Amino acid sequence: MINSFDNAVDFAKKWIDLIHRSTLTEGEAKGVIEESKYNFAEHFNRGWLDYRKSVTEAGDWAAVEWTGSGAVFQDVLGREYIDCLGGYGMMDLGWSHPEVVDTVRAQLGRTPMPSQELIDPLRGVLARLLSMITPGDIKYSFFAASGTEAIEGAIKLAKMYTRKDGFIVAVKAFHGKTMGSLSMMGKADYRQPPGTLYGGPVYHVPFGDADAVERQLDICHKVGIDIAACLFEPIQGEAGALVPPDDFWPRIRAVTKQYGVLLIADEVQTGLGRTGKLWGVDHWMVVPDIIAIAKSLGGGVMPISAFSSTEEIWQCMMSPNPFIHTTTTGGGALACSAAIAAIYITLRDKLWEQAALKGDYLQNKLRFLAEQYPQFYASITGKGLLIGQHFHNPEVGYKVAAGLFKRGVLVAGTLTSAHTIRIEPPLVITFEQIDNVIDRLADTLAEINKTI
Ligand SMILES: Cc1ncc(COP(=O)(O)O)c(C=O)c1O
How close is the Cα of 275 to the center of ligand 1, in Å? Predict the structure, then answer.
């Protein structure tokens, strides 16, 4: 018997109708919650439900996100949250920035995706725009959708240009979870389960330790292992907003040049203003050879990522085979229109300056609270609005994150641990909202203090 797929048609139609609805009744909203939980548990990944505060800490009804604006979003029941997670760095412009949405809508009215054969204008515009704002002589870019794809491209480019295979990366580094980027990751939790990864040599050194990078390059040179590139985040994000010593980036820039090794900056999370400079490496006035960008490049509206480099390095992308690196959906017109708008707003509003000011303000207040509760806090780290609260143990971190969620503030641990709770709100968060977050955190800490 031929399957008519009637159930699938009805199911999809129901959801298309819901997407078009601007309001739901309370009963419908509760239906959405129950169905969302079921869909995750039975068809996506039930493990996620155990980790999500939206399920465990939202009261009688799990929090299913529905809509948002600026630094505030609402769940389907209309409960409001101040977003201090910012989609792990994707929401620098906040939820649904109206100018990005407008630009994308206008492009949508014309065409969402390229033919793949003619010249699509926006891809070129975005590449040129990036050449205007990236450090040094960086001039050419390739576009994909995710951060991990940007890193894959950066790794491949470094190998093709140098014709070498080795990489030096950092312990605790996070570069993505596809096979190449995963090989560069500095966490056993993610690297071990899939078994053998990238076949070439990958050496991990402690993050921020320029001596270790120099030593590793020297050893590789002496024993004849060819290193293509050193790859680091300017400030480690997933590791908990860890800032390297000030001499780290200048020294690794100098030593990579000395050994003819490329320097790749993973600006996927730090890029476009989050740390108080447009690029993380700008804190140390360092110009990398290759830069990877993603997350906020799409303005929190479309997925888009890029890896970019100089004309000299890019030659191997253009000749002899200009199609050596392609992807069908990456760099489509909608994604590029979002990125062009996101860059425009970031530059026009000098959002990195806001990140620096608000970050100082927030970090000072956090340090004050940390001093009041030394039994809980180990340290506060970070730059701009990429901030880590480090606790002596993960139980306290979890209670802080859960207590904040109950009080309408979303923060995040690292992916599977609450030892460190990250605060990385949209850069457009207001000072008043920051004060609100701090009040709710103080309240949470006082409550935890009573129960421990
Ligand atoms: C520094 C860094 N690089 C790469 C990635 C991977 O990006 P994506 O999750 O878009 O693949 C992340 C994601 O958190 C990241 O923080």
Answer: 16
> If we measure between CA atoms, which residue out of 389, 393, 411 comes closest to residue 402?
411
Task: Name which residue sits closest to atom 3 of ligand 1, judged by CA.
Answer: 175
234 pocket-lining for ligand 1 (C-beta < 6 Å): no
Calculate how far, in angstroms, residue 5's C-alpha sits from the geometric centre of ligand 1.
37
CA dist., res. 339 & res. 357, Å (int): 24
Of the CA atoms within 13 Å of residue 81, those in its CB half-sphere come to 32
Contact 294 CB / ligand 1 (< 6 Å): yes
- Ligand 1 pocket check for 180: Cβ under 6 Å: no
d(CA 292, CA 412): 23
Q: Which of 142, 144, 146, 137 is nearest to 160 (CA)?
A: 142
Residue whose CA lies nearest to ligand 1 atom number 13:
176
Spatial separation of the C-alpha atoms in residues 194 and 392, rounded to whole Å: 31
Which range is least confidently modeled, 6-20, 124-138, 414-428? 414-428
Beta carbon of 296 within 6 Å of any ligand 1 atom: no
How does DSSP classify residue 226?
Answer: P
DSSP 115: -
pLDDT tens digit string along 82-92? 999 999 999 99
SS3 81: strand
Q: Quickly list DSSP for 247-305.
A: THHHHHHHHHHHHT-EEEEE-TTTTTTTTSSSSGGGGGT---SEEEE-GGGGTTTS--E
Q: What is the band of 76 on the pLDDT scale with cuts at 50, 70, 90?
A: very high
Q: 435: how many CB neighbours lie within 10 A of its CB? A: 13
- Provide the Cα torsion 198, 256, 127, 93; round to 10°: 80
* DSSP strands (E only) in 280-437: 290-293, 305-309, 377-383, 386-391, 409-410, 412-413, 420-423
**Mean of pLDDT values over 113-141:** 96
CB 256 within 8 A of CB 230: yes
The mean pLDDT value for 33-55 works out to: 92
Query: What is the residue type of 5?
Result: F
Residues in Cβ contact with 290 at an 8 Å cutoff, skipping those fewer than 6 apart: 154, 157, 158, 229, 262, 263, 264, 265, 307, 308, 309, 313
Q: Is 68 in the pocket of ligand 1 (CB under 6 A)?
A: no
Residue 242 · residue 388 · CB < 8 Å: yes
**Residue located nearest, by CA, to atom 7 of ligand 1:** 147
**Which pLDDT score, from 0 to 100, does residue 57 have?**
87
